[in-house]
Specification:
The chain has about 650 residues and is mostly helical. The chain is built from 27 helices and 5 strands. It has 2 domains: about 375 residues, Hydantoin permease, CATH 1.10.4160; about 150 residues, HUPs (Rossmann fold, 3-Layer(aba) Sandwich).
Length: about 650
Amino acid sequence: MTTQPPPITPRSSGAMPDPSLEDVHRSVPVSNGSWWRRLFAFAGPAYMVSVGYMDPGNWATDLEGGARFGYRLIWVLLVCNMMAVLLQTLSARLGLVTGRDLAQACRDNYPAPVRWALFLLCEIAIAAMDLAELLGTAIGLNLLFGIPLQWAVLITGFDVLVLLGLQRLGIRKMEAFILALVLTIGVCFVIEMVLSRPSLSGMASGLVPRPLSNGQLYIAIGMLGATVMPHNLYLHSALVQTRNVPRTRKGIAQACRFNLIDSVVALNAAFFVNAAILVLAAAVFFRNGIVVNELQQAHRLLDGFLGTQVAPIAFAVALIAAGQSSTLTGTLAGQITMEGFLRFRMQPWLRRLMTRSIAIVPAMIVISVMGDTGSYRLLILSQVILSLQLPFAVVPLIKFTSSKVKMGPFANPRWVRVLAWSIAAVIIALNVVLVYGEVRSWSAAAGRFSWLVLAGAIPAAACLGGLLAWITFRRSEPAERVAPSVSPAQVAAQATALPREFQRIGVALEARHTDGHILAQAIGLARTHRAELVLMHVVQGVGGQWYGQQTGDTESHEDERYLEQLCERLRKDLAGSEVPGIRFVLGYGSVARELVRLAAREHLDLLVIGGHGHRGLADILYGQTISGVRHGVRIPLFTVRQE
């Protein structure tokens, strides 16, 4: 008889009370069939991550690199892609082995000031990424439909509705939608490549590494920030946890192998798109001696040089697809970092709206002042910002995945550690060069006020450098300081030793025919616990909302009369039963706020409430009472599905 190996328990997180992406955590079954069926079950997370590697910010750096320097920077894209494959693989392994995403791992291991600093840096990166997505989608709408750029920027704010619908469909359908957008981008660039007829010898020579001039270095750093994107490291470590992987050494090892294949295939597809953009710019613009400094200019020139309307249309369609696909994954990344660093959960559509609102303001200002050229420079700047934030995600990732305490037998071997730290050193060195060059140029441009630039830039750079050094050289936590696992026996003993008795039970009614179903549940609980029953109703009409208890409208009188008659009838029907008393109370205005207030005022021990079960847009139209009450009351909430 063979014995199964013990399950692998995450060693850095205790009982993991807050799983990453809780709504879809371990929701995708892993097939035990053929090798291809298992590969298909694991395919998806890397494709969702890959769209960040082909977002509109990449287009700006790739187009400028190809238009200014021809095929020379293809090797930079290739090296960046190889870096991305390794780092995304480490990210996936962290999530699979420890059961924690990168943000949660940072929260588990760093003190509060460091967590907050890393969170704020990550939010800046996500805002920069969202700025690129916003501008890309807006420019695509402008090119395809002729919508003025400022109006197109405002229209992009409504993509939150697309997100609402997709999030309700589940993770697999969202992955399928993202894959469809990726295929759309790929097909568009296959068409562009065929029409532009690039030089094969030029492409081959571009794969040979060469020293970078100052202008090439700035574009190369932008390519690095556009390719190895920091938010993707947080995102990938969470997405892999949507698979229901057996918590055994064999099951986790198999998941790591399949996710490696997923990452290699997906990220090489992203490399093809980025290389295709650069090659297109080299074949069309560099060959004709034209420097492109805006996406609109590239769109117009494609028609002139290639002599067909297909090329510019494919360019615009791919740009919109890139912006929308990156928008969806960017929102998920924002949720993951906010919940991971702060344990603060926000509705996805609200999180999307907040991030997009932050991005819209600078976009509108720059477009109003500088026009189309300003939007292009803003795209380039957004990618440089992403590159500057990258070390603060890469260094913790390498340290966590190299720790035997956290990863056990799945810790990085020596050759992976050497390679990963070499990549981190290259990223940090490039960023130091970039910061030095940028501060120097700002100081020169400021003239006699250069001291103001230096007074602000030098302390900020010193603080960030100190933070990075602390994270890099800080000793890992010893094994004995890792949070112990929660004992099921201890939890069960505590639960059974503290019996809960309810003396006063409230029931929220709507003065509708569905009240009978809710009351039946509440009466059953009141009989069991011999508890007083408090009938509760909130007057929602305009009078109730504006005038509260002073309202004298018909609706308020009818609701009060309804509760009086209901109480009288229940007292008669339940006379002599275990229910000691029945009374009613009225509230006015916001349902959720009033139920919370009344529950506290009446000293309830339990609140019974009905749920309609509506979803999506109906939540916006009719509100989400249960969610608001759940977060406001400090007592148990018993939810009844209304028929």
